[in-house]
Specification:
Rossmann fold, single chain, alpha/beta, 7 strands
Length: 301
């Protein structure tokens, strides 16, 4: 792949709205809502598209396999390469932005050749998504703090980050629910360990990001979705008027073409669930959630 300087390469890139946070925090629903804005395409978790879409040929939210979906076929045409090349690209992405790679990324210790290849790949991917969708703004809800930091560096001036966090008790409740496919249940202390690592990574990323950041909570989104849409509209400049009106009348929103994310994407359309359910946790999960709350307080999240 041909390396490009960051400043020149960013000029013809679409704008990216990146949703960062933890699993089970409402990021899929938020990206579906944002995708209803004119000129915006919600692409799901692009961190996984090479693995889930182009290697495993997983099912898109439109009901077709990735290889049979017109949208992802058009994206794939902008990223030529064999299955083996797609596997190599997936390994490259993992080596830069996934959780285990975060310390090296934050310390600026990613090897120069790997970094150039990663940035070039992401530029080609986002351009391909923009061409296939006709949108000038892409929403990516991959959630990894490392991806937020990496893209902010690769695409200066083109990335804005929404940091969406959920209460520790809500996360513990969500991780206790069965799910055999994506984001499988975690024990109380596995969820605690996951949360501590992600919270630390989020804190470091918030310190290091150069682009604009908007901090939201899952609880605010569920209690007052119209108010959250107002905040995002003011911050981002998106036109979310139709989304607010749809929320007020209980409209269903089309998911679009999403390969990886919360399993609700498989419904094809989602209706926003307003309000919060009471959280009742067994003792072990309550103890873990208190420790998570202390971590959140210490990190000022």
């Amino acid at each position: 792949m041909i390396a490009e300087t960051d400043a020149r390469a960013a000029e013809d890139q679409p704008r990216l709205l990146y949703i960062m946070g933890t699993a089970r925090s409402g990021t899929t629903v938020l990206q579906v809502l944002l995708g209803q804005s004119p000129g915006v395409s919600s692409a799901g978790e692009l961190s996984h598209i090479f693995r889930d879409g182009f290697v495993q040929d997983s099912e898109c939210s439109c009901g077709r396999r990735t290889s049979e979906c017109a949208f992802w076929t058009a994206v794939r045409e902008g990223l030529p390469g064999s299955r083996e090349e797609m596997e190599r690209r997936n390994r490259l992405v993992r080596s830069v932005e996934w959780h285990a790679a975060f310390p090296a990324l934050a310390a600026g210790m990613v090897p120069a050749g790997r970094w150039r290849s990663y940035c070039d790949l992401q530029r080609h991917l986002l351009r391909a998504v923009a061409r296939a969708s006709g949108a000038d703004t892409i929403v990516d809800d991959s959630i990894y703090p490392g991806r937020a930091l990496a893209l902010d560096r690769c695409l200066p001036g083109r990335v804005a980050v929404i940091c969406l966090l959920r209460s520790p008790g809500g996360l513990q409740s969500a991780f206790s629910r069965p799910n055999r496919d994506e984001q499988r249940p975690k024990s109380a202390f596995a969820a605690l360990a996951y949360y501590v690592w992600v919270a630390l990574s989020v804190r470091v990323t918030l310190w290091r990001l150069r682009g604009p950041v908007l901090r939201l909570t899952f609880e605010d989104l569920r209690r007052d979705p119209e108010g959250v849409m107002d905040r995002i509209e003011t911050w981002s400049g998106l036109d979310l008027g139709d989304v607010r009106r749809g929320l007020q009348v209980g409209e269903s929103f089309p998911v679009g073409h999403v390969v990886t994310g919360n399993r609700l994407r498989q419904r094809g359309a989602v209706r926003f669930q307003r309000g919060l359910e009471p959280v009742r946790l067994p003792l072990g999960r309550r103890l873990a959630s208190w420790l998570m709350l202390a971590v959140r307080w210490l990190l000022r999240l």
